[in-house]
Design goal:
With about 375 residues, this protein is α/β, with parallel strands linked by helices. The protein is about 20% helix and about 25% strand. The protein has helices at about 15-25, 60-75, 85-100, 110-130, 180-185, 195-205, 225; strands spanning about 5-10, 30-40, 80-85, 135, 145, 160, 185, 235-240, 245-250, 270-275, 280-285, 290-300, 315-320, 325-330, 350-355, 365-370, 370-385. The strands form four sheets. The protein has a six-stranded antiparallel barrel. The chain has a five-stranded parallel sheet with strand order 3-2-1-4-7, with helices on both faces. A four-stranded mixed sheet has the order 9-8-11-10, with no helix packed on it.
């Protein structure tokens, strides 16, 4: 961790985690410099007056966040900068978010944002300000570790991401795509703390952020339809696994694998989104048991220090943030002639020890060994019996 005298740049959001991290580093004797990303373009239509928005990362409350950060830094004699990353955020996060949903996939904007914005465009902005620093810190719940032995038979021992002490708030999953060379100078001051202790300490130190609501979403849910208003939705059929038409959907971007509510279909039993056929503009529904998958194929992998395993190995895998890690076998996948899917880089086949529900293309399969991220990629397709 940073020590007394180190120059530390910390990403500030106005929330309790980043604010307390900055104060703890300041009290430790570090030269602390605060930075905040400016994302909000203000180009979405105004909602009806008086409607309260859900707290989110992207929204009009950014102005309030920056005011709070400015006040905090002024009170604690911390140098502070606001860095404009609006164009990069539009390109790498918002456009990606829309294109993935319209392709029938389920995006994870937080993973994309961490890779290209928080640990990408923001760091580039810091460099353009000619700020020289020893460490870049954030309020994420995760930690940086280094292996005792080289990876996969090599001599490489890169910085790697491990789970935090508080597994209920662990955010390692969101950070898996950050390159090892960037992680060398990244630190997470709260890795050893539990969320309840963070709030208690923030209140003890009279931090205004201790009384603020936490961001819960990527965007306010009230803005979802507005984000997609640049193109008209294309309605289509909702079918079952046998091809029987059950109803009409309002556009595939409004549906995700595993969804039950809001389907607009009457049935004598619960039905769930089994899959999304973007090519034929179809939403496929099925019973809950039909959502189980024995494995998946994933591609576009990132590996610490770019060292990719060449042989099958066992590890724990998470297929979404809220899922529990499951034991699995991971092996390089070599498509047959019947598999016409276009893969980014070397794909891998992940076979679960126990079937997993609602494996969603577009989400990330993240691999853990001893609670340390060993790699991860985007889910291309589930492997189901049916």
């Amino acid at each position: 961790m940073p020590k007394k005298g180190d120059t530390v740049v910390i990403g500030l959001s106005g929330g309790v985690d980043s604010t307390l991290s900055a104060l703890l580093l300041k009290e430790k004797g570090c030269n602390v410099i605060g930075v905040t990303m400016s994302l909000w373009k203000g180009d979405l239509p105004q909602l009806e007056i008086g409607k309260e928005l859900h707290s989110s990362c992207y929204g009009p409350d950014e102005v309030e966040d920056i005011e709070e950060c400015t006040k905090f830094c002024r009170e604690h004699d911390i140098e502070y900068h606001v860095i404009d990353v609006k164009d990069a955020y539009q390109r790498e996060v918002l456009d990606y978010f829309k294109s993935e949903y319209r392709a029938g996939r389920t995006p994870n904007p937080c993973i994309r944002c961490n890779r290209f914005i928080k640990f990408g465009a923001l760091l580039e902005g810091i460099s353009k300000l000619n700020i020289d620093f020893d460490y870049f810190c954030t309020g994420h719940y995760a930690r940086i570790v280094r292996p005792e032995e080289g990876l996969w038979g090599t001599d490489k021992k890169p910085a790697m991401i491990s789970s935090a002490l508080d597994l209920t708030k662990d955010q390692a999953y969101f950070l898996y795509r950050i390159p090892s060379e960037i992680l060398e100078k990244v630190r997470f001051p709260l890795y050893g703390m539990k969320k309840q202790d963070v709030f208690a300490l923030a209140k003890e130190k009279n931090l205004a952020a201790a009384g603020r609501k936490e961001s819960q979403d990527f965007i306010p849910e009230e803005y979802f339809d507005l984000i997609f208003s640049d193109k008209p939705s294309v309605p289509g059929d909702i079918i079952d696994l046998d091809g029987h038409v059950l109803g009409k959907h309002r556009g595939i971007e409004h549906y995700t694998v595993g969804q039950r509510r809001g389907l607009g279909v009457s049935a004598n039993r619960p039905l769930y989104v089994h899959s999304i056929d973007a090519k034929n503009n179809l939403i496929v529904l099925a019973d809950n048991d039909d959502l189980d998958s024995e494995g998946l194929i994933a591609d576009d992998f990132v590996w610490p220090a770019d060292v990719a395993p060449q042989e099958p190995f066992e590890a724990m895998v998470k297929i979404r943030l809220a899922s529990r890690p499951v034991k699995a076998v991971i092996a390089p996948y070599f498509p047959s002639a019947e598999d016409t899917e276009k893969y980014a880089g070397q794909p891998y086949k992940i076979t679960f020890e126990t079937p997993q529900r609602a494996v969603a293309p577009g989400q990330s399969a993240v691999i853990f060994k001893d609670s340390v991220i060993a790699g991860g990629g985007f889910i291309s397709k589930p492997l189901r019996k049916r």
